[in-house]
Specification:
single chain, five-stranded mixed β-sheet
Length: 111
């Protein structure tokens, strides 16, 4: 199992979750009650599953595709370590991954 740490936008709350190798971070986040929408259902037409990856974990991720970079240009509160959770496939190399919810995140589904 791969451990993932979710930090609230204000840094005041941390939740941990475990997922199987090959799980998609967006699914893990939603199952852990995190406010990520992913309303495009993986079609790369939105940025509602944007997360800020911890600086020490960011180099462990594969490079973002051109399509993902285009979507991140539209994300509210994007930073240098921003990624789309729908594009992060969990592997053993990512065990202990820490992500933070963006400060300007808006939850359109009411979670």
């Amino acid at each position: 199992m791969i451990r993932v740490r979710f930090v609230s936008a204000d840094g005041g709350e941390t939740r941990e979750a475990e997922a199987a190798d090959g799980a998609i971070l967006l699914d893990v986040a939603q199952n852990a009650g995190q406010p990520l929408e992913g309303t495009c259902e993986g079609q790369m037409s939105c940025s509602t599953c944007h997360v800020l990856v911890a600086a020490e974990d960011f180099p462990k991720l594969p490079r973002a595709s051109e399509e993902e970079e285009d979507m991140l240009d539209l994300a509210v509160g994007a930073a240098r370590t921003s990624r789309l959770a729908c594009q992060i496939l969990l592997t053993p190399d990512l065990d202990g991954l820490t992500v933070r919810m963006p400060p300007q995140h808006r939850d359109m589904q009411g979670r």
